[in-house]
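Why this split exists: single-chain examples teach little about how molecules sit against one another. For that reason, every record in the complexes split bundles all components of an assembly together and asks for one structure covering all of them. Below is a record exactly as it appears in the raw files.
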Amino acid sequence: MGEFLLNNLSDFWNLTGFANASATGLIMILVGILFIYLAIRHGFEPMLLIPIGFGILIGNIPFDTNAGLEIGVYEEGSVLNILYQGVRQGWYPPLVFLGIGAMTDFSALISNPKLILVGASAQFGIFAAYMVALLLGFEPNQAAGIAIIGGADGPTAIFLSSKLSPNLLGAIAVCAYSYMAMVPLIQPPIMRILTTQKEKLIRMKPPRAVSQTEKIIFPIVGLLLTCFVVPSALPLLGMLFLGNLLKESGATRRLADTAKGPLIDSITILLGMTVGASTQASEFISWSTLGIFFLGLVAFIIATTSGVLFVKFFNIFLNKDNKINPLIGNAGVSAVPMSARISQNVGLEYDPTNYLLMHAMGPNVAGVIGSAVAAGVLLGFLS
Amino acid sequence: MNKRTIGVFFVLLLIICPRAEAQGVKSVRINEVMITNETNFQDNYGVHSAWIELYNSSFGSVNVESCFLTNDKNNPKMYPIPKEDILTEIPPHQHLLFWADGLPNRGTFHLNFLLDPTKENWIGLYDANGITLIDEVTIPAGILAADQSYAREDDGSTNWVIKGQDNRHYVTPNANNMTKDSNSKIESFKLRDHSGILMAIMAMMIVFSCLLLLATSFKLIGKISIWINKRNQIKSKGLSNKNEVKEKDFGNTPGEIYAAIGMALHEYQDNVHDIEDTVLTINKVKRNYSPWSSKIYTLTETPRKH
C-alpha cells in the first residue's frame, strides 16, 4: 500500500510544473509579468499587453508534454489549441478589422484625400525591413512576415505571418504588439529630429465638413478600388470597409455597436491571450526571435522616418496655404489612434494652440488601409 | 444613364474580368489515364485495371457525386458516380481514382466501362445534369504502351504528356503529377531579387498606385459633393448674384465651425437644464395619497380561516 501511494505521488510530482520547469520557461514567465507591469503601471496599451502578458504566463506553465493531457496551445484538441486556431488560421484579424472599421471615422481622410499618400509612404518601413531581413539570412517568406511588423498593425502582422511564415507567428505577433505599445517612445524623437522649428509650427487648413453620403460612398468605393488592385487583401479590407459601412449607413446602428464593442473586445481578449500563450519557451526563445525583435524596431523607425520625410517632400509641391505639418507624417503607420495622438502631443509641445489630431487621423487611417494593401501585395507575390 | 451606356458598361466589365469563374465541380479535371495496367497500381481486390484519375484544381472541397463519367459521346450518362459515399468528396488540390474495369458492383470507384488499348479512347466528365461537359480528354490510339499513362504535365495544366517512359516521367496514380518540393515564387525571388530591392520597388509602386487611386477618386467625389452642396444651398437661399455666391463660399465650410455650433448648442442645453427647478435633496419628499399606488389594493388578500 505504501509503495502504491509513493508511486502515485511520484507520478503526480512528475506532472507538476515544478518537476518540468526550465530556465527558459521561467524567463518567459518573467517577460509575461513585465508585460502586465508595463500595461498596468505605465499604461502601455493595457488592452493588448494584459491579455498577451497573461497569455505568456499561461503558455509557459511547465507540464509534462508527453503525458497527453491535451492542455498545451500546440496540442491538437486542447481548448487553448482550439482558441489558437483563430490566430493560426487567421480568423481573428479580419474580425478585429471589422471592429476597427466600425470605430473609425474616415472623414479626416475624405476631406483631405492627399493625406492618403502619407499613409502609403509610411509603408516603406515594411519593405525596407524586408530588405534588411533578407540581408540577415531570412527566407523571403519569413522576411515578409517579419517586415509587416513595420506596418504597426497587429492583426495584419498576424494575418500575413499565419499565411507566409507560420513557424514565426508567435514571435512576430508579440513583437508587433510590443512595438505598438512602445510607439510613444519610438516615434517622438524621430519626429523632433527630422523636422525644423518652422515646419513644426505649420498650421493646417481645417478640414471641411464631410457629408454622410460621402461617408457612405467611401467604404464601397474604397473596397472596390483597393481590392480590384490587390484581391489578396480582401479578408482584411473587406471586413474593415464592411465595419465602416455599418457605422456610416446609419441604418445598422446595432450591428455597428456590436462590431465596435462586444465583438472586438471578445476577439481582442482571445487574440491577445492565445498570442501570448503561443510563446512557449521551447518554441519562442531562439536567435530568430531576437532577429525579429531587431527587425521590428528597424521597420518601425524606417516607417516613421519615411512618413515624416515624405510630408517634407510633398510640401515642396504644395502652395503656402495647403502645407502639411510633417509632425503628422509619423501617423502614416497604422497604430490607430496612438500615432495620431503622438502627432497631437508633439505638435502641442511647440505650439499649444495647434491641434493636429484630426489632421493626423487622415494618414493614420490611410495607414490601416496601406498596411493591409502591403500585406496583400506580399501575400500575392510570395504565397 | 441610358440603356446603351449600361450595356457598354457591362460589356467592358466582362472584358476586363475574363478569368472570373466559379469554384465547384467545374474545377474538377481528368488528370491522368492509364489504359493498359499490367504491373502498376492495384485496386482493393488486388487486380490491375485501367484507371482514370480526377483532380480538384480548386481551393475548396468538391463532391463529384451524381456527376457522370463516360467513354461514349452519345451516352453522357454512362456511369453515374453514386451518391452518399463520403469518399466522392475531393479535398482541395487532391485526386480521386476510378477503375475502368467494367465491374461497377465492386464499389463506387469501379466504372461500368472498359478502355480499349487498340482504339482511340475519349473520356468525358459530365455535370449532374448529364448535359454540361466539365472536362474531356482524347487518348490517341496506340500511343500508350503497357503501364504508361497519359497525363497532364502538372496537375490541372493544359499540357498532356506520356508518363512511364523513363525514371524522370513516372506514373503517379492518386498523387501529384509533378512533385513540388519548394515554392516556385519564393525560389524565383531568392534567385533574382536576393537583396529585396525589386520587391520593395514593385510593392511600393502597387501600394502607392492603389492609394493614389483612392485619393484621386475621393478628390473627385469631394468636388462633386461640394458642388451639389453649393447648388442646394444657393437654391434654398434663392441667390442669383454670382459675386454674392462666391463671397459666401458655400460647401467649403470647415468642420470646426460645425463643431463650434454643436458645442454652443450643447452648452446652451446644459444651461437650460441647470435652471430647471428640480432640487436634489436627502429630505423625504411628501407625496399625496393616491389609491392607485396603495399596496393594500394591489395585494391578494388571504381568505380567513374559520
